[in-house]
Amino acid sequence: MSGSPPSDDPAAIAYDGSFLGFLCAVADALNLARAGLPPPPIQARVAESGLFDETVEARRDDARAASLWGRLSRRLGDERMRTCLEAFCSDFEGRETALAAVLARALAAGPAAFDDLNDPATLLVARAARRAGGQAHLVSGLVRFAELADGSWYAPIEPDCDVLPLVAEHFAARYADMAFVIHDRRRRTALVHRPGAPWALVEGFELAGGDPALAPRELELREGWRGYFTSVSIAQRENRRLQASHMPKKYWRFLPEMAPARAAPPAPPADSAGDPC
Amino acid sequence: MNLTDKIGVLADAAKYDASCSTAGSARKNAPGGLGNGAVGGICHAWAADGRCVALLKVLLSNACAYDCAYCVNRRSNDVRRASFEPEELVRLIVDFYRRNYIEGVFLSSGVIGCPDATMERLLAVARTLRTRERFNGYIHLKIIPGASERLTLEAARWADRVSVNIELPSAASLARVAPDKKPQAIFGPMRVLAAASGFEAPRLAAPRQAPAAALGSGGAPGAALPERRSGSDTPGKADDSAAPPGEAWPMPVPAGKASPAGGAARRSPSPMMDSQATQALPSVWEARKTRARNPEAPLIPAGQTTQMVVGASPESDASILTLAENLYLAYDVRRVYYSAFVPTGSDPRLPAVNAPPLAREHRLYQADWLFRFYGFKASEILDPTRPFLDSRLDPKSDWALRHLEFFPIELETAEYGELLRVPGIGPISAAKIVKARRQSPLRAAALPKLGVVARRAKWFITVGGKLPDTGVPERGPWMLDNPDALRGELLDPAFRAEPSAQPELPWENAR
Ligand code: SF4
C-alpha cells in the first residue's frame, strides 16, 4: 500500500479526491478483482507526479458512483455505509485501498466482513472510521457560531479529518432556521446552509472582504458564556489534565471560553487581530 | 448586576448537581423550529475540573426558603443572591443555543415561597421555550421537592429529562441535614414520573430460597455463572446480610409491600437489604433488557435521574449501592449520580472534611456501571461484611479476586455475560469478541485491537485453549492460585481517582 509500485505491479488507480470520484475508482477496482486481477492501490491524484505513468485515472461519473452506492447500501446496510464514509473522511494513509479491499470482501462474503478485525485492511478501515467519526462528534460540540451583522452565522474550524460531510446533516437539522457557514479553513471548504434549502459543501471557500462585522450582542454573549464556563468548574476538583484529554488544545483557538482572560475573544476568522471591543 | 455577573452567581449555585448528560432524547426539530435532541448526547466543552459542559445549568433564583446543610444556597448561608426574569432566561438560552455553546438547559431553583410557586416559575420558562420559541433542544427540569402531581406531570410534558434529588442516602440523614425536605416530597414525584412514563415496578414473588442456593443464582448473565459458592474468603456471606440498622431508606416498592417514603423504618433493617429479597430481584441490566426505551417518547424521553451526596453522612457504600439498585428497579431511574460532598461552609450538621471524597465517588460510579452494563447486583459487589469499596482496586477486579474459581474464561466459547465478568473486558470489547470469533479464530495478540485491556485480562482467560503470555514467566502463567500476587497486578497505577484511569468504563455517553 505504500511506496511506488514496481513496473510489473498492477497500476494504481487515481481519482479526483472527491467521494464520488473515489466510488468510481472502487467500481474500477471491483471490475479488476472480478477479472481475477489483484486489486490495485487507490490514491487521490496529486499534481505532477512521476507515478502517473503507472496510474490509471478513474473518470468521475456521478451517476455511476450513485449506482454503486445504492448497490452497496442495499447489500451492506446504512450503518456500514456510514463507516465507509467516515473512513474515507479520515486522514489515514492507505484508507482508500483498504476500503476497496473491504468492500470487495463484503460484496462477496456479506457485511460481516467489516467485523473481522484480524484482517489488516478491515482493521485500518475500522480505526479510520473511528477516528473521523470521533472527531466529527467532537466538532459537532465544539463549533462556535458568531452572529454576523446581517443576521447570518459563521463558524471556523480546522480539524485533522474532513468532518464537514459527516456533520452536515446534524447542523442542517438543528439550525434549520439559520443561514450559516461552517468554514474548514484547513481545506478551504465550507458547509453552507440557508433556511428552506438543502445544505451544500463548497470547495475553495474564502470569506469575501475579510472579517465580517459582528451582530451587536455578539461580544456581550461571548463574555456571558465565558463567565458561565468559568463558574461551572468546581475549584476543589480542578483537573486540567482531564480537561485537555477530552478537549485537545488544538481545538481551543476557536473557543471563546478558552481564550485567555481579559484578551479580546477570538473573532472569526481567528487570526483577525482588531475586534472593536 | 450585569448579565455576566448574574450568570456567574446562578451557575455557581447550580454546579454541584452532577447530572450533565444530554443523551437519551431524539426530539426532532419541527418546521420553523430551533434545535433537536442528539440521542447519544453531545458535550460542548470541558470545564477546568474535567467535567463535560453540555447544558446551561443555572438556577432561576438562588434565594431559598430552605436550609439544607450541604447546600450553598441554604437560607442561613451568606452568599450573593440573584434571580433571572423568566423572559431574560429564555432569551439567554436561545442565544447560547444558536451559537452552539450548549445542547440545552438544566433548570432548577431555590425554593421561593412554596414548592408549587417555584415549580410554576420553572415551568413558565420551559413552556415558553417549547411553545413560543419552538425550541426543540434539550430541557432538563428539576422537580422541586413537594411539587404537586399536576405540576410534576406538566414538567414531564416539556422536559426531555427530569430529576428529583434524594441527596441523602437515608431518612435519618435527610431529617438531620435537610430538615425541610420530607421523604414523601421526594419519592412522591419520583413515583408519579415513573408511572407517567409507563413504568410498572416489578412485583416480587419472594420465594424463600436457601442462602446457598440463592447465591449466584438469577438470570443472565448471572445464570451463566457456575452455581458455586465462593471460597472461604467470604464467610457467612449470604447468611447475615441484614443492613446495619438505620442505614438504608425504606424502599419497599419492588416488593410491592407498602408505599415508599414510610420514613419510620429507621431502626429496622430495610426490607431491601434482605438477602432473600435481593436475590430474587433481577439485576438492573437484566431488568432493563425488557424495558423498551423510546427516545422519541412524548413524555420525558430521557427519563428521570437522581443524585446522592457522598460523604456528607455516615452511610456505607453498601447502603448507597443498595439504594441505587432499588431506585433503578423501583422507579426506573435512568441514572443515579453520586456527588462527592464539597464542603461549602462550616455547618455543624456536617462532617469536617478537607477535600471532596473523589476516589470514593469514582468507585461508586464504577460499581454503578457494573449494575447497568455488566449484570452485577449490589449484593455481589458489597455485603455487610465488606461495607466499603476498595479505593485501590476497581470493583470488578475486586469481585474477580473473590471469585477466582470462575476463571479462566475461554474467549472462543464464553457467553457475552461471562465475558463481561473478565477484568479488562467491557461491553464494547465483549461485543467485538463475539462478532470477531464468528469470522475467524481469535488470536491473543489481536485482543488489544478488540478493545481488551490485555494487562488486566491476561490473568483470567484462555484463547483457543491456550494461556496468553503474561510476561511474568517466573510466576508461572497463572496466578489464579495466588490472589495476593494477582491483586498486586490489578491495583490501579498510583490509585488515580480520575475516570480516565479506567478505559473499560467510559465516562461520557452515559445514558
Ligand atoms: S431546597 Fe435545599 S438544596 Fe435546594 S436550593 Fe434550597 S437549600 Fe439548596
Structural description of this entry:
The complex is a heterodimer of chains A (277) and B (511). Chain A has 277 residues and is of the alpha/beta class. Chain A folds into two domains: 12-137, no CATH class; 143-258, no CATH class. Chain A is 41% helix and 10% strand. Chain A has eight helices and eight strands; from the N terminus they run βαββααααββαβββαα. Chain A has a five-stranded mixed beta sheet, covered by helices on one side. In chain A, strands 2-1-3 form a three-stranded parallel beta sheet. In chain A, α1 links the parallel β1 (13-15) and β2 (42-44). The longest helix of chain A has 23 residues, at 120-142. The termini of chain A are far apart. Residues 1-9 and 263-277 of chain A have low confidence and may be disordered. Chain B has 511 residues and is an alpha/beta fold. Chain B folds into three domains: 1-163, no CATH class; 166-392, no CATH class; 402-490, no CATH class. Chain B has a six-stranded parallel beta sheet with strand order 3-4-5-6-7-8. Chain B has a two-stranded antiparallel ribbon with strand order 1-2. In chain B, strands 9-10 form a two-stranded parallel ribbon. In chain B, β3, α2 and β4 (104-108) form a beta-alpha-beta unit. Chain B starts with a helix and ends in a 21-residue tail after the last helix. The model of chain B is unreliable at 205-247, 252-277 and 494-511 (pLDDT under 50). The chains are: A alpha/beta (277), B alpha/beta (511). The interface between A and B is large, with 55 and 62 residues. The complex binds iron/sulfur cluster. Iron/sulfur cluster binds next to loops of chain B.
